[in-house]
Amino acid sequence: MKLATWNVNSLNARMPRVVQWIEEMEPDVLCLQETKLADDAFPHLEFRALGYDTVHHGQGQWNGVAILSRVGLDDPVAGFDDGGPPDRDARLVWATCGGLRVASMYVPNGRELTDDHYTYKLGWLDRLAVLLEGRTPGRSHALCGDFNIAPGDDDVWDLAAFVDSTHVSAPERAAFDRLVGLGFRDVLRTRHPDAGLYTYWDYRGGAFHKRQGMRIDHVLVDGAAADTVSFVFVDRNARKGDKPSDHTVLMVEVEPA
DNA sequence: ATGGTGGCCCGGCCA
């Protein structure tokens, strides 16, 4: 199963490139983040015409997450299905695709270490971890999306540029490591421990061409499926050309187990 | 050099 994740930074702005990418790469499952669409504006029919079932959890002009699947899409769940209050933003959606329980996630950015949004980010990650502690045993899960966390020092182009910044702080990295401690494998880092594999480059200042990126989009796989990962691929081409997202695609080959 | 670019949609906010 080819499983991909892409923060598209507005599906309206990115739809031609998303369709072109799907036709070229033929993923079995594609997780999208930052669709910036209301649910009634999501192009379900256009994706259906390409062979994909879809689930979208949106709120309008900000956030929004989706899963596209051509290997089945069952038991969709929007947000934290934990009995607690609804999340303030549309940042999480689940579906079972070809036997794998898949999450498309858009973790809060955090903005600044002193910002209320940073507190929200850490709380969001804590709530996710608690939810995952109660996940169904014996089933494999894939957490796919924009985590807004660079888990290691090699995951930013220059650590000195991130002093006192979000994405690299100890509490954020502890939240990421907590997921690893729950049995989730960072499949890109596992297969490609080399530095410089980024998934996001700021639009500003020619960051992409200067290789000033960050590895903040991740696919984390648990259970028996984690041992079936046969390739992991950052598609830098999706960041090139006309009207790219500021994130590119991360794709993995994994067999549900 | 707290700039720069591109999304939201038309005045700034957010990434």
Describe the structure in your own words.
This protein has 257 residues and is α+β, with helices and mostly antiparallel strands. The chain has one domain: Endonuclease/exonuclease/phosphatase (Deoxyribonuclease I, Chain A), CATH 3.60.10. Helix content is 22%, strand content 26%. It has five helices and 14 strands. It has helices at residues 11-25, 44-49, 116-133, 170-181, 187-191, and strands at 2-7, 29-33, 53-57, 65-69, 74-78, 92-97, 100-106, 141-146, 185-186, 200-201, 213-214, 217-221, 231-235, 249-253. Strands 3-4-2-1-14-13 form a six-stranded mixed beta sheet. Strands 5-6-7-8-12-9 form a six-stranded mixed beta sheet. β3 and β4 (65-69) form a beta hairpin. The longest helix has 18 residues, at 116-133. The model has no long low-confidence stretch (mean pLDDT 97). The chain binds one DNA strand of 15 nucleotides through loops.
Please identify, by name, the CATH architecture.
Answer: 4-Layer Sandwich
Instruction: Report how far apart the termini are.
Output: 11 Å
Note the overall shape: globular
Multimeric state: single chain
Order of helices and strands: EHEHEEEEEHEHEHEEEEE
Low-confidence sequence ranges: none
Q: What's the name of the CATH homologous superfamily?
A: Endonuclease/exonuclease/phosphatase
